[in-house]
Amino acid sequence: GAGVSQTPSNKVTEKGKYVELRCDPISGHTALYWYRQSLGQGPEFLIYFQGTGAADDSGLPNDRFFAVRPEGSVSTLKIQRTERGDSAVYLCASSPGYSGELFFGEGSRLTVL
Amino acid sequence: GENVEQHPSTLSVQEGDSAVIKCTYSDSASNYFPWYKQELGKGPQLIIDIRSNVGEKKDQRIAVTLNKTAKHFSLHITETQPEDSAVYFCAASTGYSTLTFGKGTMLLVSP
Question: pLDDT tens-digit profile of A95-110?
Fold first, then answer.
């Protein structure tokens, strides 16, 4: 399809494990965002890429969280030493960069047991 | 940083009634105010947005109003239909920077 694709859609892991979440943005979109959404809450900003570089990573909660976008397209959000509080839906969005509209994927639901 | 407050948290209306959701923001530099609709198991989808040089914008049954002086903006849905049932989020940003979202309003439209 032509939308933002996120994998996996669901991930269950144990406390302390390492997790990678992948995002395939809409082709041609230069801007890519990661948000985290806890139950009953609005999306919370994590990190924003313009091209290959992280233009704003001020939302990453601590150094266990890291994201890359090496070729300016696909992005991976990496979480080390997962904690139960990391359980949430991780949303990826892309934007063509010339408008404010974000196009969201369906999210990756992470559950840390 | 920006803080966006949204209310009510839940809203129940009868089909055909109007629904209004209100948001306030804290950063006077914010100039872009979108509204997103999120259905169960889906990502948020933009339904309407407004920039600070405009006081009101309409798109069929949906309208958004902005009061920059009071730093609040509202979403108005007229002639509601059951398919309007979803969670609605307001958001604010300065230009093309990252969006700060409200906590959402669950709208339930009963037939």
Answer: 987 667 899 999 999 9
- In chain A, which ranges are E strands? 5-7, 10-13, 19-24, 31-37, 44-50, 53-56, 65-68, 75-79, 88-95, 103-104, 108-112
How far apart are the C-alpha atoms of B82 and A10, rounded to whole Å? 29
The reply to whether residue A102 touches residue B99, judged by beta carbons under 8 angstroms, is: yes
**What b-and-e string marks burial along A13-36, b requiring 16 or more CB atoms within 10 Å of the CB?**
beeeeebebebbbbeebbbbbbbb
Confidence band for A67, pLDDT divided at 50, 70 and 90: very high
The beta-carbon neighbor of B41 closest among A93, A97, A106 is: A106
CB A91 within 8 A of CB A107: yes
Residue B49 forms contact with A (CB below 8 Å): yes
